[in-house]
Structures are given as structure tokens and as C-alpha cells.
Amino acid sequence: MKGAIVYRLVASDMDQTLLDSNHEVPQANIDAMREMRELGCLFVPASGRAYGSVMESLAKVPYELLDGSYLISYNGGCINRIGDDEPLTYHTLPFEKIDALFRYGLQFPEVSFHIYEVSGTVWAWNLQADEVAYLEGHMGYTNMESPSLEFLRDVPLAKMLYCIPDGMPTLRKIEQEMPASLKEGTSTTYSSGRYLEFNPVGVDKGSGLRQLAQMLDIDLADTIACGDAANDESMVVAAGVGVAVSNAIDGLGEKADYFAKSSNDDGILKEVVDQFVRPAAQES
């Protein structure tokens, strides 16, 4: 870190980072958001989920703590101004690519699928009972009537994913053995210990953070990013200070500048404020 820095933006992953094990925002995080606001530091949610789904998860956060900030969704695929459903920027995957990935995945009966429209609608196929329970009260979706994506041919699509609850070794094997031509044009990552995600090439949370920082004329050195899994790595590495929660997986703790003592159940933002935001503001 450079001397006399003032942190102007803290981006945080949602699931298993900002949200506790019950998919709620711990009070410690809300209190930290309030102090960040008083210190002139934006809180920016950054998620693989859609804008609307993230905002539902933040429903208990007083709106004045979010007003005027931004939200990075779809792993950097969209940036929204909070309060506006229409994205400021977005990226898409061609229908033909998502359709080919979907049809390839159908050969694996243990795999379920999420397909994400830019609008926020999520389509699902073959969800396991564990996945249904995991998503309940956490993220809305619509079950497809048949294993065909033809009805989405003319719809802007942000990303898709394969899901196997607690099946990360199998997902990694599927990706490793997948034809290179099939993955061409995509960026792949893993999240939540259950998802293999396919995003547009060049799109990740790190690119989303860089783009937002440029839009706001904020030096990346003046940013902090928090995460728990592989899909957060690019953002954690890009930020001035990258933070891994204590429950981090996928080796993220080794990539981060700071391995927190706090888990997602404790309130990671409180530790970030105590260790970085407040001390930097006091020294400036």
C-alpha cells in the first residue's frame, strides 16, 4: 500500500462473503457500511448473480447506505447504478455458444443448469434437490419445460453455468475434458463450491472493478475487494487491497493481500473498516 492513501471504494462478493450462512447481511456489515459512507467510501456489491437478485439480498440494508453507489453483477458482465434496473454497461454470450454448452452438458445426468438473461431472468434445468433448497429464499428462477434453449434464441444472454452441489472435482474434470473449441469465446470460473460458470471472454469481476473505477475516476490503489472463491480472484488481485474471508476456498487466501480473521458469518466489512478504511482516513 502507498502512504497517505484514502480508500474510496470497497467491493464485496455477496454469497459466502458479505452474506451469512442464512443468506442475510450481518448487522456488523450494515454498521460498517454506515461508517464507510461517513468516511466517503462507496460500498459496491459484486456478484455472479443478477442485479435484481442482489438487491433482494440487500433489502434489509437501509437504502441511504446504498444510494448513489453501483453494483457489479454477472461476474463483471453488467454494471448498474443502484436504483436503476437498466445496466450502464453489459456483455453477452452468443446464443449459439450457450446452446452448444448446454447441449454438451446434457450428457452428464448429474449436472443442472442456470441460464441468465441480461434482464435478470434465470432459467433452470434439472435442478437437484440440494440446489433447490440452496436457492430457496436466495435467488429466484424459472424451470424450463424441456431441455431446449430455442425459446431464448433472440434474447440477450449474460452467462450460463453448470451445477453439481459439492461436486467441484467432477466439474473441474468436465471442464478439463471439454473440447477447446467449445470453450472458445468464454471465460470460465468456479463459485460457491458448486458452480462452473461460463462468462463472455474477458469478463470477470476484476474487469468489472477496473471498468467501474475508471468510470468514477478512482485509482485502483484506492480500492479494496473482498471475496471467498475462484470467481472473486480477479477482483481481489486487481484491487489495491485484496481481502479473503476466513472461509475462503479455491486457494483465494494465497492470492489475497490480507487473509481476514472474519468469516462471512462475522461481518467481513467491519474488519475491513477497522484494518484499512478508518486508519487510512485518519492518516490522510
Can you offer a commentary on this structure?
It is a single chain. The chain has helices at residues 14-18, 27-38, 51-57, 95-105, 129-135, 168-177, 180-183, 205-215, 233-238, 252-255, 268-283; strands at 9-13, 42-46, 70-73, 78-81, 89-90, 112-117, 122-125, 142-143, 157-163, 186-191, 195-200, 223-227, 241-244, 258-259. It has eleven helices and 14 strands. The longest helix is centred in the last third of the chain and has 16 residues, at 268-283. Helix 2 packs parallel to helix 11. It has 284 residues and is of the alpha/beta class. Helix 9 (233-238) links the parallel strand 12 and strand 13 (241-244). A six-stranded mixed sheet has the order 8-7-6-9-11-10. It has a five-stranded parallel sheet with strand order 2-1-12-13-14, with helices on both faces. The protein has a three-stranded antiparallel sheet with strand order 3-4-5, with helices on one face.
Can you count the helices? 11
Radius of gyration over C-alpha positions, nearest whole angstrom: 18 Å
Number of DSSP-assigned strands: 14
Report the sheet with the most strands, covering strand number, pairing sense and barrel closure: 6 strands, mixed
Q: Give the H and E element order.
A: EHHEHEEEHEEHEEHHEEHEHEHEH
Unreliable stretches (pLDDT < 50, length at least 5) are none
Intertermini distance: 14 Å
**Average pLDDT taken over every residue:** 96
Beta-strand content estimate: 15-25%
Name the structural class.
Answer: alpha/beta
List descriptors:
22% strand, 14 strands, 5-stranded parallel beta sheet, 6-stranded mixed beta sheet, 284 residues, alpha/beta
